[in-house]
């Protein structure tokens, strides 16, 4: 049985459960459940604090975990990222009251409040900056107003929390994060159960990113059409009863679908349809 750590709370928890559900796995019915077994898929899910997941996975007691890249790196645990999942995207940045500092190089002698001490201490050291770090559990944006620190380092998505606190980012992002699948560093990546789990999640990512496009076009325009919709391994082309016409089917990126339909129409393609992909194995 594959043992998988899933975030039980916070920004990662809802989207992770949704992705696992789309991949065909049973998920817990209520938020107090700490573990469930999905016998049909031979998987056991453990609902754990996102911050603890890399530690459990590095211990070898759990095979796989879903957590944030920033949490993985901050933990210092001996676990590695094996698949990025595209949700809970954020940057990790320094912020101050306007006029306090222009970048990390100005932080000598200051105090930085953060929930991610591991990332911040390393970043300061890598930049040769001597600043102290104070650990706070959350809502770190308030630390400056209340005099606990001159600088914060925190997760930024829309920037709303910073704006509301009258703070602005300084310097370049320390890192970019998103939800990731992790496993113990150096673990054999060929294990069939693990590979099957990753293929299922990859299938969800593809189904979310691509749509299926079907259209009819004149045979003499086929090469132009194929250049517009190359598909993954090449489009499927079938003859139409109407001589001189062919039907074409290819996967296209969902975000480009409308532009691609316009381009196909312009070269004379007609009956252009897009349909959602519900599941996929590449
Ligand atoms: N507003 C956000 N947008 C996108 N990702 C976020 C956001 N806030 C936190 N994250 C990501 O979520 C993970 C942190 O999860 P965690 O549950 O510890 O904190 P949280 O989502 O802020 O929840 P909590 O309410 O418990 O503070 C990190 O990977 C972080 O990058
Ligand atoms: O840039 P934004 O869109 O505002 O998002 C970033 C904020 O979201 C998270 O806070 P959360 O609400 O989880 O509270 P926390 O600080 O207690 O973790 C994060 O810690 C930032 O404060
Ligand atoms: Mg938070």
What can you see in these coordinates?
The chain is an alpha/beta fold and 282 residues long. The protein folds into three domains: 2-87 and 178-187, Periplasmic binding protein-like II (D-Maltodextrin-Binding Protein, domain 2, 3-Layer(aba) Sandwich); 90-176, Periplasmic binding protein-like II (D-Maltodextrin-Binding Protein, domain 2), CATH 3.40.190; 210-276, 2-Layer Sandwich (Alpha-Beta Plaits). It is 26% helix and 33% strand. Strands 2-3-1-4-11-5 form a six-stranded mixed beta sheet. Strands 8-7-9-6-10 form a five-stranded mixed beta sheet. Strands 13-14-12-15 form a four-stranded antiparallel beta sheet. Helix 3 crosses helix 4 (117-126). Bound molecules: adenosine-5'-triphosphate (ATP), 1-O-pyrophosphono-5-O-phosphono-alpha-D-ribofuranose and magnesium ion. Adenosine-5'-triphosphate (ATP) binds at residues 9-12, 50-51, 68, 70-71, 88, 90, 138, 155, 157, 177.
**CATH class value of the largest domain:** Alpha Beta
What percent strand?
Answer: 25-35%
Mean pLDDT, all residues:
96
What name does the CATH topology of the largest domain carry?
D-Maltodextrin-Binding Protein, domain 2
């Amino acid at each position: 049985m594959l043992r998988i750590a899933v975030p039980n709370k916070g920004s990662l928890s809802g989207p992770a459960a949704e992705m696992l559900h789309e991949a065909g796995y049973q998920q817990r019915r209520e938020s107090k459940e700490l573990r469930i077994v999905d016998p049909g898929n031979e998987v056991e899910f453990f609902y754990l604090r996102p911050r603890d997941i890399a530690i459990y996975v590095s211990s070898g007691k759990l095979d796989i975990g879903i957590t944030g890249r920033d949490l993985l790196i901050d933990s210092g645990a001996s676990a590695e990222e094996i698949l990025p999942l595209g949700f809970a995207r954020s940057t990790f940045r320094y912020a101050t009251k306007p006029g306090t500092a222009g970048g990390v190089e100005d932080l000598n002698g200051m105090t930085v409040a953060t929930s991610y001490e591991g990332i911040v201490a390393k970043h300061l050291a890598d930049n040769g900056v001597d600043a102290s770090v104070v650990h706070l559990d959350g809502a770190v944006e308030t630390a400056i107003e209340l005099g606990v620190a001159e600088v914060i380092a925190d997760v930024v998505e829309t920037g709303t929390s910073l704006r509301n606190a009258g703070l602005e980012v300084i310097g370049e992002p320390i890192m970019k994060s998103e939800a990731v699948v992790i496993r113990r560093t150096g673990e054999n990546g060929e294990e069939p159960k693990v590979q099957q789990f990753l293929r299922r999640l990859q299938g969800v990512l593809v189904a979310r990113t691509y749509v299926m496009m079907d259209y009819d076009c004149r045979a003499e325009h086929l090469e132009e059409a194929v250049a517009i919709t190359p598909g993954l391994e090449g489009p499927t082309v079938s003859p139409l009863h109407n001589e001189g016409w062919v039907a074409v089917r290819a996967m296209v990126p969902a975000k480009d679908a409308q532009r691609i339909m316009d381009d196909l129409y312009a070269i004379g393609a007609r009956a252009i349809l897009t349909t959602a992909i519900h599941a996929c194995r590449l």
